[in-house]
Design a protein that fits this description.
Distance between the termini: 48 Å
Strand order of the largest sheet: 1-4-3-6-7-5
CATH superfamily: Regulatory factor, effector binding domain
Strand content: 35-45%
Order of helices and strands: HEEHEEEHEHE
Number of strands: 7
CATH topology: Multidrug-efflux Transporter 1 Regulator Bmrr, Chain A
Helix content: 25-40%
Structural class: alpha+beta
Length: 165
C-alpha cells in the first residue's frame, strides 16, 4: 500500500501516547456529548458502538462542535454490566444531544491490549493513583482507535482516566 493510499484509508489517526501517559488533567466544565448503549456483562451488543459513535461524531461535526483531532477524546464509562455511557469531547453544546460538562482532576495511564484487560488495568491504575497519594472516584476509558485501525497500527492503545475524589 502506498503512503497516499494508507492516508486515504485512515479512519483513526495514529495515536501518540506521550501526551497521555501518566499525566494529570484538570477539567473545568469540559464539554462532552453523552449517549448510552446496551451491553451484556460489560460486553457491548454487536454494532452498537460503531453506530453510536458514528452518530455522535456526525452530530458534533454538523453543529461545528467537533474538536481538532489532537483534542479528540471518546470515553466509555460502565455504570453497570448492562449499560455503557459514551462521551465525545466537543467544543460547545450540540443541539438535540445529551450535553454534559465534566469538571475535576483526572490522572491518566496508557495501556495496550485487548478490551477484556480492563479489570487488570483498573488494578494497575489503582496502584498508580494510590502511589501518588490520591483516591479514585470513577474510571473512564478512552479507546484511541477503532478495531480496524488498531490492527493496522499494531497497537490497541487505551487511556484510563481516573477521576479523583
Amino acid at each position: 500500500m502506498s503512503r497516499s493510499e494508507e492516508q486515504s484509508s485512515e479512519c483513526c489517526p495514529k495515536f501518540d501516547k506521550a501526551p497521555w501517559d501518566e499525566k494529570t488533567f484538570q477539567w473545568i466544565d469540559k464539554h462532552f456529548i453523552r449517549d448510552t448503549i446496551p451491553q451484556f456483562m460489560h460486553i457491548p451488543l454487536p454494532g452498537t458502538i460503531k453506530r453510536t459513535m458514528g452518530k455522535m461524531w456526525r452530530k458534533a461535526q454538523e453543529s461545528q462542535a467537533a474538536p481538532e483531532m489532537n483534542d479528540f477524546i471518546a470515553m466509555a464509562y460502565d455504570p453497570s454490566p448492562w449499560r455503557s455511557e459514551f462521551y465525545v469531547a466537543v467544543t460547545k453544546d450540540v443541539p438535540g444531544e445529551d450535553n454534559v460538562k465534566l469538571s475535576g482532576t483526572f490522572m491518566t495511564k496508557v495501556f495496550d491490549g485487548p478490551y477484556n484487560a480492563v479489570p487488570k488495568w483498573i488494578k494497575e491504575m489503582d496502584s498508580y493513583v494510590e502511589a501518588n497519594g490520591k483516591r479514585t472516584k470513577k474510571y473512564y476509558f478512552y479507546y484511541t482507535t477503532c478495531p480496524k485501525c488498531a490492527k493496522k497500527y499494531g497497537h490497541n492503545y487505551v487511556v484510563a482516566f481516573a477521576e479523583l475524589k
